[in-house]
């Protein structure tokens, strides 16, 4: 579902960077939060990957196989601004990056920043930041099962719930194409 209240925004919307360089994605929060999650959606691998959780005490928890040398989070002194730093860029870092917060049993995702990593930058590229996005964020309601005794840690259920949502959204175009193909075959069979 979509949330109408803007709790966080991301800039820039798009980044084109050169391999072996570094980049930064900014997440602005409307108030101080207990922690900020960062995720990456890979179009190539069709998966949603948990990268890092940065809590209010400045402690970072990394996802599985996520390099601490590559990813780091910095929080501004105002504590309402948080940035993801990605170094040693490689084409495998291509994807859409999301900052996220958990509030009132819901997971709110920012508008996303699409990162493209290339070996050589185009000559006409201008490195300007896009204005703050006013798009609504996605939110996912925590299941009732997670509130029962022995429930999974938020570091497990949040990426899982978000991954399921993204997977379901990615199936919509496939279902539409299948429906059109089926209709075409039906029309062809009835013409003969």
Break the fold down into its secondary structure elements and pairings.
Layout: E1 8-11, E2 14-18, E3 23-29, E4 35-42, E5 47-55, E6 60-62, E7 71-75, E8 81-86, E9 95-103, E10 106-109, E11 113-118, E12 139-141, H1 154-191
Parallel strand pairs: 2-11
Antiparallel strand pairs: 1-3, 3-8, 4-5, 4-9, 5-6, 7-8, 9-10, 9-11, 10-12
Question: In summary, what is this structure?
Answer:
The chain has about 190 residues and is an alpha+beta fold.
Structure description:
With 192 residues, this protein is of the alpha+beta class. It has two domains: 7-118, Immunoglobulin-like (Sandwich); 156-191. It has one helix and twelve strands. The protein has one helix at residues 154-191, and strands spanning 8-11, 14-18, 23-29, 35-42, 47-55, 60-62, 71-75, 81-86, 95-103, 106-109, 113-118, 139-141. The longest helix has 38 residues, at 154-191. The protein is globular and about 70 Å long. The chain crosses the membrane at residues 155-175. One of its GO terms (biological process) is adaptive immune response. Keywords: Adaptive immunity, Disulfide bond, Glycoprotein, Immunity, Immunoglobulin domain, Membrane, Signal, Transmembrane, Transmembrane helix. It is found in: Membrane.
């Amino acid at each position: 579902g979509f949330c109408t209240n803007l709790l966080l925004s991301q800039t820039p919307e798009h980044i084109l960077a050169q391999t072996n360089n570094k980049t930064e994605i900014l997440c602005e929060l409307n108030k101080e939060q207990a922690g900020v999650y960062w995720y990456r959606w890979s179009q190539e691998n069709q998966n949603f990957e948990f990268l890092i959780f940065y809590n209010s005490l400045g402690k970072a928890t990394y996802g599985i196989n996520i390099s601490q040398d590559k990813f780091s989070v910095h929080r501004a002194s105002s504590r309402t601004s948080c940035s993801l730093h990605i170094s040693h860029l490689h084409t495998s870092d291509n994807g859409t990056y999301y900052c996220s917060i958990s509030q009132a049993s819901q997971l709110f995702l920012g508008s996303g920043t699409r990162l493209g990593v290339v070996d050589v930058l185009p000559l006409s590229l201008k490195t300007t930041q896009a204005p703050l996005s006013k798009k609504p964020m996605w939110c996912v309601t925590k299941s009732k099962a997670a509130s029962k005794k022995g429930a999974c840690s938020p570091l497990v259920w949040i990426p899982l719930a978000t991954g399921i949502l993204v997977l379901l959204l990615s199936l919509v175009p496939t279902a539409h194409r299948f429906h059109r193909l089926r209709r075409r075959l039906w029309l062809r069979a009835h013409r003969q």
